[in-house]
Amino acid sequence: MKFKGLDYYDVAGLLSEEEILVRDTVREFVEDNILPIIEKHYSAGTFPMDLIPKMADLGMFGSTLPAKYGCAEMNNVAYGLMMQELERGDSGIRSFASVQSALVMYPIFTFGSEQQKDFWLPKLAKGEKIGCFGLTEPDYGSNPGGMITRAEDKGDHYLLNGAKMWITNGTIADVAVVWAKLNGVVHGFLVEKGTKGFTAPEMKGKHSLRASVTSELIFQDCKIPKENIFPKTDGLKSPLMCLNQARYGIAWGAIGSAMTCYDTALNYAKSRIQFGKPIASFQITQEKLVHMVTEITKAQLLCLQLGRLKDQKKLRFQQVSLAKRNNVNMALEIARVAREILGANGILDEYPVMRHMANLESVKTYEGTHEMHTLIVGEDITGIPAYV
Amino acid sequence: MKFVACINHVPDTEAKIKIGSGGNAIDRTGVNYILNPYDEFAIEAALQLKEKKGGETFAVTLGGDSHKETLRKALAMGIDKVILLKDDSVRDSFSVAKALADELKKLTPDFIFFGKQSIDYNGEQLPGLVAEMLGIPSVSTVVKMSVEETKVICEREIEGGHEVVETSYPVVISAQKGLNEPRYPSLKGIMASKSKPIEERQPIAVPSAAEVVGMQKPPSKQSGKIVGTDATAVPELVRLLHEEAKVI
User: Fold this and answer.
1) Probe site for chain B from A8, A17, A26 (most B CB atoms < 10 A)
2) CATH superfamily of A11-125
3) How far apart are CA A76 and CA B147, in angstroms?
4) Is B218 exposed, middle or buried (0-12, 13-18, 19+ CB in 10 A)?
5) What pLDDT, on the 0 to 100 scale, is given for residue A1?
């Protein structure tokens, strides 16, 4: 049966015709192109590369950026709905779109020179070029300000040294947006594939986000042309602005994972017979399902208002932290409860639940850990920073 | 050249249909409506032919304001202009065909595409009726089509095989699944559709030639029967399949 989504509070009634059409189009795309192949890729630990041109054709990359770069110029609610539907497919596929859009195209658009924008944005929108974002380092995760990666001004070029870790798309990227200290201040650089001294080995052995490429980026005396520095950055605040874009999409994406886990659990509970009746007729199961519907409905309304605020340019980053923290945690919890309802069947790849659960473990930690978002909101409401 | 797709707004294939209180129409409450799936082939055919031959594409539908949603989807897929013949009164196929033909006469299209049927009432009448009213040829259930100068060559599905038909245009073609692979509306197209106008026109009034007097749901499924659990049940199963179910 085709996925109908979950809309207990007629939240769709608050959406425009275009927003609904975006949601339904991506939903159908996921149904036709991602669901039939995802388990195979997840189990093989490969990213489905042939999805890239298809996603680009639809306009999924940099979709909130201006039409003159070949982008869809959607509002942020439509963008969020797209992320929700993509993550209904798989968090790894949504991660690809998040990185390409929020962590590569957004910084080029926001901090880049006209030349950088004109050269890279159309190619990235068309999926002809793939990008990645290097901020996190082996020893600096939640505290990126301590980064070791350094750039030195050598007159006609910059010399880049250091290493980044946990970089989505790293190995398959044509260009890396790399954050490094230059004279003690964080700056952004475009490092192109093939630059001498730049390697991007894939990290293996993941039990989560298996249909996504995760890499290290290693820079050994890389000569970076002068025109490859972002001219308009403002220290560490700039990469954090990128993360804020990505977190916004993740808050929506988590709803997609939660909805498919709920949908799977509901259908299973109605058809699985024990003690002569469907397990959906037992009070404990009903309580679990009601809990899921309640949490998903709350998350939907949270995100919709978050998106409206973003479109009105009234959004504060602490509000994004609240939504990312709440929604990913809620989705992970729902995946676990869905697995309980499915019993032993819940661990099989015949159902999407265990895959989503394993993915969400990463999603809970990346783009600002659950704990860091707690402290961001904590500081916001008390005025006391608890992480320094 | 002008290419027109005549499209319809129909209940979702998975909608649970209830009969309304009058007994002769469905109860629309809570029913989700979509672009008629066969009409997606009609839109795609119009778009592909325009890409090859150049010209302009149109989508036309007859119905109430709710049909605008379906016209937006046509715009998002890439149709240039859309027309709503605004009238949500009850009309039979004959009356709809008359109104469409009247509008199409003014548009003077070279190709008119329909889905082979609307999945709501499954009348399969409109393409033939409209062609007849316009005095032009029509080819139904087309799965392959090519256009060579003045010739149109169509492959259509017939019982147990395909039939190749040659005709000229202007022509009415009803599209069967397989004619093409309908594109997704692009996100850019969806956003651009917002600023494109939906032309509203008053269709001519034509009394219906037939009236729906009643609707019935099919009888509910009867529960299955277990005739046995081992090989000894086979003769009885065969007998029942032959004599009762009459399927072998």
Assistant:
1) A17
2) Acyl-CoA dehydrogenase/oxidase, N-terminal domain (1.10.540.10)
3) 43
4) exposed
5) 54
Q: What residues contact residue A238 under an 8 Å CB cut-off, 6+ apart?
A: A107, A110, A111, A179, A186, A188, A230
* Residue located via tokens 């090519």: B146
- Complex ipTM: 0.85
Q: What is the pLDDT of residue B13?
A: 83
Asked whether the beta carbons of residue B187 and residue A1 sit closer than 8 angstroms, the reply is no
Binary contact (B191, A72; C-beta < 8 A):
yes
The C-alpha atoms of residue A285 and residue A269 are separated, in whole angstroms, by: 8
* CB proximity A340 to B under 8 Å: no
Task: Name every residue whose Cβ is closer than 8 Å to that of residue A124 and which is 6 or more positions away in sequence.
Answer: A61, A62, A100, A104, A105, A108, A130, A131
Whether the upstream peptide bond of residue A239 has omega within 30° of 0, thus cis, is: no
Set of chain B residues whose Cβ sits within 8 Å of the Cβ of A21: 72-73, 76, 185, 190, 193
Give chain B's mean pLDDT. Answer: 92
Q: Which CATH number fits domain B2-201: 3.40.50.80, 3.90.220.20, 3.40.50.620, 3.30.160.70?
A: 3.40.50.620
Cβ within 8 Å of A, B 100-159: none
Listed as ranges, residues in chain A with pLDDT below 50 are: none
Query: What's the pLDDT tens digit per position in B182-234?
Result: 999 999 999 988 889 999 999 999 999 888 889 888 888 888 888 888 999 99
Q: Is the pTM of this model over 0.80?
A: yes
